[in-house]
Structure formats: C-alpha cells, structure tokens
Amino acid sequence: MKTAADQCGIRRYQQVLELENGSDDGDEYDYSPARDEWLLTSGNLVAGVSYQHQPWQSTATISLTMPLSRTLEERAMRALNSEIPVTINVTLAKNSRRIEIEIALANHAEDHRLRVLIPTPFASQTVVADNQFGCITRPVRDPAMENWQAEGWKEAPVPVWQLMNFAALQDGHQGLTLFTEGLREFEVVGARHDTFALTLFRAVGVLGKENLLLRPGRPSGIKMPTPDSQMPGKQVYRFALFGFSGDHIQASVMQHARDYLTPVRTYNKIPYDAMKLNLTNNKTPSRFSLMQKCISGSVLSALKKAEDEEALIVRVYNPSETQSLQDSLQVNAVVTGWQEVRMDEIAVNTENGCGKMGEFKPCQAKSFRIRF
Prior knowledge:
single chain, Beta-galactosidase, Chain A, domain 5, 6-stranded antiparallel beta sheet, 2 helices
C-alpha cells in the first residue's frame, strides 16, 4: 500500500503495510535471527487491487504473493522455493476515524518471522504502549545493545516490546497509534526510529534452543520439538491505524482502542418467536443505557457481577503516567449502594457520592460496587 491518510486528513503516511520477512532461528521463548540473515520485503512485488464501495464503508483489497525460503538452510543459500499468498483488506467505515486492516495469508515455510511495516513522520526516542492498568513509555532502542556481550549480558536487550491494545508514536503535537486484535509484539525500526514493525507471526519449531545469536549458551527451556508453532496453514490478522492530534492522553487513545476492541454486538430480531418453548412475558425497552461516561478521563476496565452478592463491580483506571485526574460515572437506574472496593471486592473506607470516583493518581485503578 503506497499511501494512507488519517480520517481527519491531518497526515499522509507513505509506504504503509509493506511486509518484511526474515529468518527466525529462535525458540518459543526468544526471537533470534540466523547468523546469515536475509531480509525480504514486499515493496517491489506486483499487487492486484480492487475496491468495494458500500453505503456504510469502503474496502480496498490488495492481493500479492510473496516469495521466500522454505527453511533456514535454504534461506542461507538464497533459495526462493516457497511463497505466502497474502490478501489485505483496508476498510474505511462511515463515522469512524480508524483505518481498519485485515491480513489473510497461508504459511508453508518454517523458521521465519513475518512483520508489517508502518512508517510514520514521527521520529522519536520513545514509544508508548498500554498494559493492564495504564500506559508505559519505553525507549525505542536500548543503548546496551551496542556492547551487551562485553558487559556480560546473558541475552541481548532487543527492544521488541509488548502491548495490550495499542502502541503510539508521537511528537507532542500529533501521533499515529496501532490498535491490535491479539497481536502483542512490536518494534520501532528505521534509521530515524519512526517505523512500526508489527509482528504478525513467528514460526519456530522447538520449545527451547541453545546457542542463539542473541542468547548464547543453554536453551531457555526443554529442547522439545513443537511442530504446530511453525504456524502452518491459513491465518487471519486484524489491526487498525488511528491518527490523532495532541498526545495520546489528550486524544483519549486508550478509550478509542477499547472502542475498537469491544464493538457493539447486534442481532436481527424476527417479528415472531421461532421457538415456542419456555415463553416469557419479559418486555425490554427499545433503548436503554445502564450507565454513561464521557470518553475522556479514566478508562473502563471491567463491568462484572460481584462475586458474592447481587451487585455490579465497575473497574476504571487512569491511563496517564504523569497526571492525576478527577472523574465520575452517571448511572441511569435507582442505586441503593455505591461503595469503593479493593480488587478482591472488600470495601474501602472512602466517602464518595453515587457515581463519584474521586481522584486517580497516575496509572491508579479503582473498583466500585453498585447495588440496585
């Protein structure tokens, strides 16, 4: 894909969604390239493109076949004797600022890693990603990589990071974030540290392996064959791009990530009861909202039934690493009890009115029990 523009037209991004294929001489624990690496990319491949326009969304379908080596030994000989057919669907939905991507492929090779590259104009020394209850800012490159063996490291501190829902590169004025559906590994690459490399899959064949390039010495685990971890066959991956102004907190990026990962589920209610067993007289309103909260501020982490009583537990947290905040929640029902509780649902001795959540310190999580 040559060019993408965010939905607000703030930025255009060049050469996005280029595929990068490299060796993976690692194991289930750690990535490690072959000593004789040979990187392949899809930038110069011929791709077929088609478009489908619908009232609520438009989709571009990009199809290509990427040649690669079938094994590590054949990669060392620069033999292109396998291939990965790839279909990329890029969707722009009505009333959505996201660029949604679905990549379908079929893998027939072994011991390799496939990543998708997303260049940005934001050269940065740090990258921010989310974790269970907040965000964490990390360096895009660890300076210890320069002489890790001389300093006695057992393993190279490769700056391949993890995310839960999003990762963002930004310059303080604008940024680009990745929302991922199950893809948990990324790296920031390029001479200017401005390109996301999102791992689609790693194909390896052993649980633990010894004498890796980036982890010399003994295996991390048992040296046991794991053929299914070669990731054979058809696979589908989904993620989205989201451009924003300001920084990730000002733009409520965490909340938009949750919106992407928890879409509204619907079904088609037919005008008659197809099943006549156990009919009830329950009538539900055509529109109902139990609670409301503005998209900025704290982030909803969970809404669940209480473990030991007839009540609901709502859990929220402050996504900022540096700033405190005040927040509240509007409950659209008669509430008989509102109580802050710990993670184990034991009451905390605080005084908050119904819906009031008080002050959140940076990355602080709070839970509240609601009785009706």
